[in-house]
Write a structure and sequence with these properties.
The protein is mostly beta strands and 241 residues long. The chain folds into 2 domains: 110 residues, TolA/TonB C-terminal domain, CATH 3.30.2420.10; 111 residues, TolA/TonB C-terminal domain (2-Layer Sandwich). The protein is 12% helix and 39% strand. The strands form 4 sheets. A 5-stranded antiparallel β-sheet has the order 1-2-7-4-5, covered by helices on one side. It is elongated, with a radius of gyration of 22 Å. It starts with 11 loop residues before the first strand and ends with a strand. The relative contact order is 0.17. The N terminus is likely disordered.
Length: 241
């Protein structure tokens, strides 16, 4: 499940590592357009699809920036892209991204411009100096009876909140809830097994009540059943770019 939502800030985009609760880290891609139209006015970047963070690079804990030279045609599309420098692990992802970029039509076409795609991920750090926090719930729950349910990825469900006051106070770690899932896949009863703070506990319970579950393994009459739900709260530091 992806628990991050897009945050529009120029061409600054969040990317969750797609749905896997065991993901090694949250990946982030920043596009920084430095284009100039024939040495005159900067080209305006209208569209910049996010460049996926390569799993191989994440496993190796590699971060870095890729510098590219782009050829922009009369319609503002990238007709050619050449790598200038950067970690090889990011080349293909950067190329795939910039080839989908859309600029405002240049005054003189085609025109050559430079661009940069930066790849980095958030690092765990002490709560008092953290700049953000991640919340990672289980995506698959298993009961003592062996029944397995998956959390359905639904745009209407809420993610548990990680309040800045708790994060800055150093409250982090794993919360454990007991969730009773009924035959319709709804959380009917939720209790706290391991608390982090009363405020975080109540916010998590409120969020989980919006979730829907589907039976993954077990007979159709396996539900209702009681499942432990683990939610990890981790302070993180925004990396220096």
């Amino acid at each position: 499940m992806n628990f991050w939502r897009p945050l529009p800030l120029l061409v600054f985009l969040w990317v969750g590592l797609c749905c896997a609760p065991q993901a090694l880290a949250q990946a982030q891609t920043q596009t920084n357009e430095k284009a100039t139209d024939s040495g005159q006015q900067p080209l305006k970047l209208l569209k910049s699809p996010v460049a996926p963070f390569p799993i191989e690079a994440l496993q190796k804990q590699i971060e870095g920036k890729v510098q590219l030279s782009l050829l922009v045609d009369a319609e503002g599309r990238v007709s050619d892209a050449t790598i200038l420098s950067g970690p090889p692990e990011f080349y293909q992802s950067a190329l795939d991204s910039v080839k989908q970029w859309q600029f405002s039509p240049p005054a003189h076409a085609p025109t050559r411009t430079n661009a940069e795609v930066s790849f980095f991920y958030n690092h765990p750090c002490p709560g008092p100096v953290s700049t953000m926090g991640s919340v990672t719930p289980d995506g698959r729950l298993t009961s003592e009876k062996g029944t397995i349910v998956d959390v359905i990825d639904d745009p209407e469900w809420l993610s548990p909140r990680y309040f800045p006051e708790e994060r800055k106070a150093g409250i982090e770690g794993e919360m454990v809830l007991s969730v009773t899932v009924d035959a319709k896949g709804r959380a009917k009863k939720i209790a706290v097994v391991k608390s982090l703070s009363p405020r975080l506990d109540q916010a998590a319970i409120k969020a989980v009540r919006t979730w829907k579950f589907k039976l993954k393994d077990g007979s159709p009459d396996s539900l209702p059943d009681v499942f432990p739900l683990h939610i990890k709260f981790q302070p993180e530091c925004f990396p220096n770019m």
